[in-house]
Design goal:
about 300 residues, mainly alpha, MetI-like fold, globular
């Protein structure tokens, strides 16, 4: 167990280093700079700004400086938000995006498992077609369309919920539904397909031949086997949801991390781009590690922890 965790930790560190290196190089070799869009200023002022942020140094020295500061937990200053550094922005906005992402994930799992289970059990029936219609609708509707639609319905027409903002529980419902709709639909398709495959296995026929109740066969045996493909996609899905969605956060005025990432790209705010990228990559590595740890709990035949 310890060797496995150590090996996976080192693998995650290597992945993080590769992502940081590629992102750093691509940002600096792209045409333009972080202060090219500023109003006309004297060249000596631009030179002083470049010296302040060490942009006048060779790229290799900038890269070494960034790695040293990163290992110390310092993500650097923001070029766009002069009075703030990247650590402050991440610490302020990440809890908001994480809360919204976890709520969206909870909704996706709560919706997809029953829908996929129903669709697989009543295969080729009206229930199956209705469940897959809902799943297709969730995948087809973009976030901005779905968000505008449910704001119009639940806020403007019915007046049940607040159309935006953050803090009150009633304000969390609409962005959670909007962000979790597509993952819920995708997981419903995946659950249905996995269950249909599991229901055709020999151990399912053996369980039925032993006289087990159909509910026990479906929930205890087939569903447990079908959770493995679902767990595989949960790693990147958790990281994507937790780091936030710019579209959803913009529509519902959620003060999360997603909108800062998009503005950082347009403003060429190098440290902020790198900071959000580091957070996303670290979350992805941790989520994949948790998924691997859960494999052996779901299916004892998987001995990944002992290899």
């Amino acid at each position: 167990m310890v060797r496995y965790l150590l090996r996976r930790f080192l693998h995650g560190v290597a992945v993080l280093w590769v992502v940081v290196t590629l992102t750093f190089v691509l940002m600096h070799v792209a045409p333009g700079g972080p202060f090219d869009r500023e109003r006309r200023v004297p060249p000596e002022v631009l030179a002083n700004i470049a010296a302040k942020y060490h942009l006048d140094e060779p790229l290799t020295r900038q890269y070494a400086r960034y790695l040293k500061e990163l290992m110390q937990g310092d993500l650097g200053p923001s070029y766009k938000y002069i009075d703030r550094n990247v650590n402050d922005i991440v610490l302020e906005t990440f809890p908001v995006s994480a809360t919204l992402g976890l709520l969206a994930l909870l909704f996706a799992l709560t919706f997809s498992l029953p829908v996929g289970l129903c669709a697989a059990y009543y295969h080729d029936s009206w229930a199956d077609r209705w469940c897959m219609f809902l799943a297709t609708l969730g995948i087809s509707l973009p976030n901005f369309t779905l968000g505008a639609l449910i704001i119009w319905l639940f806020s403007l027409q019915l007046g049940w919920l607040q159309p935006g903002g953050w803090g009150e529980p009633s304000r969390l419902i609409l962005p959670t539904l909007t962000l979790g709709a597509a993952p819920a639909a995708y997981l419903s398709y995946l659950t249905r397909a996995s269950l249909l495959e599991a229901l055709g296995e020999d151990f399912i026929r053996t369980a039925r031949a032993k006289g087990l109740k159909e509910s026990a066969v479906l929930l205890k045996h087939a569903l447990r086997q079908s959770l493995i493909p679902i767990m595989t996609v949960l790693g990147p899905l958790v990281a994507a949801l937790v780091t936030g969605s710019f579209v959803v956060e913009y529509i519902f005025a959620v003060p999360g991390m997603g909108r800062f990432f998009i503005t950082a790209v347009t403003d060429r705010d190098y440290p902020l781009i790198m900071g959000v990228t580091v957070v996303y990559t670290a979350l992805l590595a941790c989520a994949n590690l948790l998924v691997d740890l859960c494999y052996s709990l779901i299916d004892p035949r998987i001995k990944s922890l002992e290899t």
